[in-house]
From TrEMBL:
Function summary: Involved in the gluconeogenesis. Catalyzes stereospecifically the conversion of dihydroxyacetone phosphate (DHAP) to D-glyceraldehyde-3-phosphate (G3P).
Keyword set includes Transmembrane: no
Superkingdom per UniProt: Bacteria
GO molecular function, one term: triose-phosphate isomerase activity
Keywords: Cytoplasm, Gluconeogenesis, Glycolysis, Isomerase
Pathway this chain belongs to: Carbohydrate biosynthesis; gluconeogenesis; Carbohydrate metabolism; erythritol degradation; Carbohydrate degradation; glycolysis; D-glyceraldehyde 3-phosphate from glycerone phosphate: step 1/1
Catalysed conversion reaction: D-glyceraldehyde 3-phosphate = dihydroxyacetone phosphate
Binding site for substrate: N9, W10, K11, G173, S212, G233, G234
Organism: Leucothrix arctica
UniProt protein name: Triosephosphate isomerase
Family assignment from sequence similarity: Belongs to the triosephosphate isomerase family.
PANTHER family: TRIOSEPHOSPHATE ISOMERASE
Originating gene: tpiA
Main location: cytoplasm
GO terms classed as biological process: gluconeogenesis; glyceraldehyde-3-phosphate biosynthetic process; glycerol catabolic process; glycolytic process
């Protein structure tokens, strides 16, 4: 049986003060949550600070991005081995904001995915279609292409121990959520794709939904058969909302 994972993506938000308050509220409230894996993905600069605040907490730490390189003359980059040194368990790769704003291609996403696997971090591979893609009826082929980029280069075994997050671009930060049925259809499609290569890995892999998930819609989304958790943006910045989503799971 797959465990549920609720991961907060703080994006470019926070300060020492606000993170101290948020993590304090989360670590207090998390005792009421059971049978759910919970993680927060901090901005790089606050990773060590967040690590110290999470000491002895069941909440795992994650990062939002990683360099495809292990070391060297890559100004401004942060390597997977560095994230590991500060207890990051998870790291996002291929978030739509990085694909769209920073021009990250599938090739770059795959290289980052590989860099994380080398260091034993859990990549959270983000995939999803734009509104235009959905209107053209090509949602599944867009998502399959993004997942296949990793399988073609790294092999299906690399998906084992990784997480996939389906995030329709049109639902991110817009308040517009995919309906549970729309999300389930894509999640089932992703699982069917994995199953073509390896049934066990398909059954084991956690597939998260992301895109305006909040306390009001979380239960219905998380009740769907192939939705194994959430990647939460805006609502992860408010402890009450994030904890309510964890409880809904
Ligand atoms: O990584 C999180 C997603 O981009 C969802 O963000 P959101 O919950 O603010 O829509």
């Amino acid at each position: 049986m797959r465990r549920t994972l609720i991961a907060g993506n703080w994006k470019l938000n926070g300060s020492k003060d606000s993170i101290t308050k948020l993590v304090s509220e989360l670590t207090t409230g998390i005792s009421a949550v059971s049978n759910v894996d919970v993680a927060v993905c901090s901005p790089y600069i606050y990773v060590p600070f967040t690590e110290s605040l999470l000491t002895d907490s069941p909440i795992s730490l994650g990062a939002q991005d990683v360099s495809m390189h292990a070391s060297g003359a890559y100004t401004g980059e942060v390597a997977a081995v560095m994230l590991k040194e500060f207890s990051c368990k998870y790291c996002l790769v291929g978030h739509s904001e990085r694909r769209a704003i920073h021009g990250e291609s599938d090739d770059i996403v795959v290289s980052k995915f590989k860099a994380l696997k080398v260091e034993g971090l859990v990549p959270v591979l983000c995939v999803g279609e734009s509104l235009e893609d959905r209107d053209q009826g090509i949602t599944m082929s867009v998502v399959e292409k993004q997942v296949m980029a990793v399988i073609n280069e790294c092999g299906i075994d690399a998906i084992d121990g990784s997480v996939i997050a389906y995030e329709p671009v049109w639902a991110i930060g817009t308040g517009r959520t995919a309906s549970p049925e729309q999300a389930q259809e894509v999640h089932a499609g992703i699982r069917a794709l994995l199953e073509r290569f390896n049934k066990d890995i398909a059954v084991k892999t956690q597939i998260l939904y992301g895109g305006s998930m909040n306390p009001a819609n979380a239960s219905a989304l998380l009740a769907m058969q192939d939705i194994d958790g959430g990647l939460i943006g805006g609502a992860s910045l408010k402890a009450d909302d994030f904890l309510a989503i964890c409880q809904a799971a």
